[in-house]
Amino acid sequence: MEHTGATKAPYNFIDLFAGAGGLSEGFIQAGFSPIAHVEMNPYAAQTLETRTGYYYLKEQGNLDIYFDYIKGKISRDEYLKSIPEELLKSVCCETMSDETLPGLFDTIDDILTEKGIEKVDVIIGGPPCQAYSLVGRAQSSHMENPMATDPRNDLYKLYAKFLKKYQPKMFVFENVMGILSANGGATWMKVQEALRAVGYEIECHEQNSKNFGVLQSRRRMIIVGWLKDSGLSYPQFEKKTSNATVYDILMDLPALHPGEQAAEYASVEASEYLKETGIRKESDVLTHHCARPNKPRDIEIYKRTIELWNDGHKRLNYNDLPDELKTHKNRKSFLDRFKVVEGDEACCHTMLAHISKDGHYFIHPDINQHRSITVREAARIQSFPDDYYFEGPRTAQFVQIGNAVPTLMAKGIAEGIARELNLEESDGKSPT
Predict the structure, then answer these.
(1) Rounded to an integer, what distance in angstroms lies between the CA atom of residue 52 and that of residue 384?
(2) What is the crossing angle of helices 394-403 and 42-60, to 10°?
(3) Which of 248, 257, 267 is nearest to 368 (CA)?
(4) How many CB atoms neighbour CB 381 within 10 A?
(5) 432 or 202: whose pLDDT is higher?
(6) pTM, to two decimals
(7) DSSP 3-state of 271
(8) Closest by Cα among 17, 15, 19, 16 to 400
(9) Which of 78, 167, 187, 279 has the most other CB atoms within 10 Å of its CB?
(10) Residue 16, beta-bridge partner list
(11) Is the dihedral of CA 165, 168, 170, 172 positive or negative?
(12) CA–CA distance from 161 to each of 98, 101, 178, 194, 371 (Å)?
């Protein structure tokens, strides 16, 4: 799929371990043109196909077809028939392994030939982070196959093989903070060795999504690599701040009680933050705004949790609940398992894929709604635009969103990468 601007995007990219496409979306918004997305999860791959169709139809001036699809007026099959097959082929739903790599290379080579692309500019993406996660590591000690022996620890080797094959000018490898300490630091040493062995200099720095205009605190390690002797370096990312609060991404959405849903915005006028970031546009239709049903016991706990937060930003301690409301046997850890989204602050706590389980960690701040947040609200916290449609059942949608790189963070990273590449070109340097 080509970028939809007036001119062809100056740089292209391949997205590995693409998930639902948060990182890709940011790069596209920054003017990059995607070559291919590789993602093993079928629902996430379908989401990527749907988004690919969105950009194609936007370019053709036929977005009505897209909106008919997300409104449920036409079937997915009918929708996909409006998208050229060669574009859909760019979404590779495949588990990356030594066995599948030759086929993936063949597919991508065909795309490069069809598009007349001689050089891949950037490779982005990061292997699934669970294997490096600090929380996951703690929870896995009792498992039959603990995180220390998780085969996902070695997925970076496949990433390195893509770098060796296509030799992009730069790459972006995103992961959780725990990658530095996984297996006592041994994994990180091996990652560095593998990336340097295929011809790259690398740097790794902590970045927080709140510094990219996202209304969420989300700490990630952003590893950037560049071809040796290219004159490139780790970008200086522009810090973006706003006067908005988290309420600014919630207030135009209709109030819901548990089990209710809505398909119309509560307010025609979006907040300045939503308009400035492009999260909501005038043409948007509301999707994915459906609240989970909740048991009366959970609703009572939610009310208590919200009351405490509103009373001086206090957090609920699970052990302080009346006995009749306690159902968990674990009374020593995860005592903050019920948590309100910080509506009146500049950013909320980190969105997690765990929201797919129960939503207790992401309670809407409005006590009159006493519910967990919807898929659309979670997507907004991750700065996905409202016209971004997530495929699959609600559980799968939450997983896709929770695992994603926030779009605005990805856009800021992409802009930094573009500045580096622009400087390289203006200096007349050519990577070896």
Answers:
(1) 15
(2) 80
(3) 257
(4) 28
(5) 202
(6) 0.91
(7) coil
(8) 19
(9) 279
(10) 38
(11) negative
(12) 9, 9, 23, 9, 45
Q: Are 167 and 120 in contact (CB under 8 A)?
A: yes
* Residue spans per domain, the chain: 12-241+405-426
pLDDT at residue 429 is higher than 70? no
Residue 129 bears catalytic tag: yes
* pLDDT (mean) for 209-234: 97
Catalytic residue among 129, 204, 290, 347: 129
Amino acid at 340: V
- pLDDT: is 139 or 286 the higher one? 286
Rounded to whole angstroms, the Cα distance separating 233 from 170 reads: 9
Could you report the per-residue pLDDT of 308-350, keeping only the tens digit for each?
999 999 999 999 999 999 888 888 888 888 999 999 999 999 9
Query: Per the structure block, which two tokens stand in for 284?
Result: 């948007």
Residue among 281, 176, 167, 270 at smallest CA distance from 220? 176
pLDDT above 80 for 4: no
Q: Please calculate the CA angle 136-138-141 and round it to the nearest 5 degrees.
A: 105
Q: Hey, what are 99's tokens?
A: 């066995």
CB 327 within 8 A of CB 299: no
Share of the chain above pLDDT 70, in %: 91
Task: Give the whole-angstrom CA distance, residue 308 versus residue 311.
Answer: 5
- Size (the chain), residues: 432
Q: Could you say which DSSP state residue 2 is in? A: -
Which is nearest to 155 in space by CA: 51, 17, 35? 17
User: 213, 184 in Cβ contact below 8 A?
Assistant: no
Topology of domain 12-241+405-426 in CATH is Rossmann fold (3.40.50)
